[in-house]
User: Fold this.
Amino acid sequence: HVQLVESGGGSVQAGGNLTLSCATPALTPSGYCMGWFRQAPGKEREGVAAIFDRTYYADSVKGRFIISEDDSKKTVFLRMNSLRPEDTAEYFCAADSPGYCVGGYFLRRNGARYWGQGTQVTVS
Assistant:
């Protein structure tokens, strides 16, 4: 059973920063296409960032968010800088086969084999 566990969410003022973590005890992050998605109330889920051969970002977060991974810690991170109220959402970690990352398809596909339970980020 592949479990992804997010943490690090919380409430922050606009302009602030947060770092989300996704623990991946059953898999080595660099062997998968790993990504972060978010869903705000009343809106569809959207891809935010992904990583495998390189990093991929949604236009709305490019230049502000950084995705990274640490195989030794079996953790994927999302560093979120200069947060805006429109970044308020439930953030989900996801994983799938490496091929889904190519060309940023993972973010557009908006689906994944494995999902975490989510962590709430609120920016006011």
In short: The chain has a mean pLDDT of 96. The chain is about 5% helix and 45% strand.
